[in-house]
């Protein structure tokens, strides 16, 4: 990849920009938001509901776990003793490589669970947004 | 003729503002309310690039000049009569109240994003067990490490969200938390900010930006039409 000049803002300064711009930005701004007409008033449209379907990346996934494992392993930490200890563990870890196949199966089960729980969380976030949980203190 | 409804505003809105907001945009007035609409031939309004951008740009133009309640994209009614009888008339009181609440406010979006190396260092430092999981090559060990790191970032998210709400709460009239899309996203917040005290809010955001650096970088987007603050005041039927 050729050298790119990346505009870096000073650390700690807050980037400010107007909203208009990319389609992705616009979708992010209006997705699932705004006043909704009662179903009996509005004409139902094919295609619109697509907008609200999984436009989001699931955070907890095998790929994410592996990415962060690699990134954490690459980290240059001050604790050298930990490094040595980790090296020893690595030798032992190597012995269990033949179990990898089973691990992958286990991992994909785990991923399915993760997808489920991420969906629940997304639902709960949006449930919270509706502000319908009536806390009338009468 | 079907109508796509962009939003609701006060009937006192000047014609020039409506005309400048977009081509073939018109008003359906009911007493002190006006719905901003556009003809939707055959009721066909696909979530195309052009239609999405048109919806936002009309509302942005209106919001720059007056108070407007944005509709969710794709709200189509059969015609003027249905819009008035099924929406503007029965919900008049709530709509007027919602407009009143939004008057003098703008919506801004505040996003936080973690610097990968900085946040990982903090997560590892906060969880001694992570040090022992590092550097191991088996799939089991990597999954365990990755899962634990993700949990550490999740915990960090909650702490940071509390911190933001504490710092900015006094300067806003409303906060709505959206979901985050990527593992290094810290939060995505919609904030309803009074225009009269915008300078105080700005100063508080800058101070917060300094306080959370370098692990967390803030981005302020907007103003945007108040899409996140339209929830009508429900009146028990």
Write the layout of secondary structure elements.
The complex is a heterodimer of chains A (138) and B (237).
Chain A: E1 15-17, H1 23-30, H2 62-74, H3 80-95, H4 100-130
Chain B: E1 3-10, H1 15-21, E2 26-30, E3 33-39, H2 49-65, E4 68-70, E5 76-77, H3 80-88, H4 92-102, E6 105-114, H5 116-126, H6 128-133, H7 139-168, E7 174-177, E8 185-194, H8 198-212, E9 216-224
Antiparallel strand pairs in B: 1-3, 1-4, 1-5, 2-3, 6-8, 6-9, 7-8
Protein model, in words:
The complex is a heterodimer of chains A (138) and B (237). With 138 residues, chain A is an all-alpha fold. Chain A has helices at residues 23-30, 62-74, 80-95, 100-130, and one strand at 15-17. Chain A is flat and about 60 Å long. With 237 residues, chain B is an alpha+beta fold. Chain B contains eight helices and nine strands. Chain B has helices spanning 15-21, 49-65, 80-88, 92-102, 116-126, 128-133, 139-168, 198-212; strands spanning 3-10, 26-30, 33-39, 68-70, 76-77, 105-114, 174-177, 185-194, 216-224. In chain B, helix 5 crosses helix 7 (139-168) and helix 7 (139-168) runs antiparallel to helix 8. The radius of gyration of chain B is 23 Å and the shape is elongated. Chains A and B meet through strand 1, helix 1, helix 2, helix 3 and helix 4 of A and strand 1, helix 2, strand 5, helix 3 and helix 5 of B. Strand 1 (15-17) of chain A pairs parallel with strand 9 of chain B, so a sheet runs across the interface.
């Amino acid at each position: 990849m050729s050298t790119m000049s990346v505009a870096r803002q000073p650390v700690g300064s807050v980037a400010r920009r107007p909203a208009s711009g990319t389609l992705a930005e616009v979708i992010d701004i209006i997705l699932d938001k705004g006043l909704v007409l009662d179903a009996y008033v509005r004409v139902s449209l094919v295609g619109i509901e697509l907008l609200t379907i999984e436009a989001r990346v699931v955070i907890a996934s095998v790929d994410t776990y592996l990415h962060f494992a690699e990134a954490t392993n690459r980290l240059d930490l001050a604790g050298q003793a930990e490094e040595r200890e980790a090296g020893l563990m690595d030798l032992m870890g190597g012995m269990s490589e033949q179990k990898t196949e089973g691990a992958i199966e286990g991992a994909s089960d785990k991923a399915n669970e993760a997808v489920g729980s991420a969906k629940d969380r997304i639902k709960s976030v949006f449930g919270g947004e509706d502000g319908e949980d009536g806390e009338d203190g009468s | 003729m079907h109508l796509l409804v962009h939003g609701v505003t006060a009937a006192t809105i000047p014609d020039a503002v409506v005309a400048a907001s977009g081509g073939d945009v018109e008003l359906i007035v009911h007493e002190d309310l006006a719905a901003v609409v556009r003809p939707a031939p055959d009721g066909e309004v696909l979530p195309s690039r052009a239609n999405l951008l048109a919806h936002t740009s009309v509302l942005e133009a209106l919001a720059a000049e007056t108070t407007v309640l944005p509709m969710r994209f794709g709200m189509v009614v059969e015609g003027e009569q249905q819009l008035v009888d099924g929406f503007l008339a029965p919900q008049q009181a709530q709509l007027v109240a919602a407009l009143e609440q939004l008057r003098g406010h703008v919506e801004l979006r505040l996003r936080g994003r973690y610097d990968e190396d900085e946040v990982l260092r903090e997560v590892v430092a906060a969880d001694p067990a992570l040090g022992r999981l590092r550097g191991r090559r088996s799939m089991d060990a990597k999954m365990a490490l990755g899962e634990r790191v993700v949990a550490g970032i999740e915990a960090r998210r909650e702490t940071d969200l509390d911190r933001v709400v504490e710092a900015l709460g006094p300067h806003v009239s409303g906060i709505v938390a959206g979901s985050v899309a990527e593992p290094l996203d810290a939060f995505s917040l919609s904030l309803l900010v009074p225009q009269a005290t915008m300078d105080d809010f700005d100063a508080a955001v800058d101070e917060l930006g300094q306080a959370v650096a370098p692990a967390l970088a803030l981005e302020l987007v907007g103003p945007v039409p108040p899409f996140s603050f339209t929830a009508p005041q429900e009146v028990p039927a």
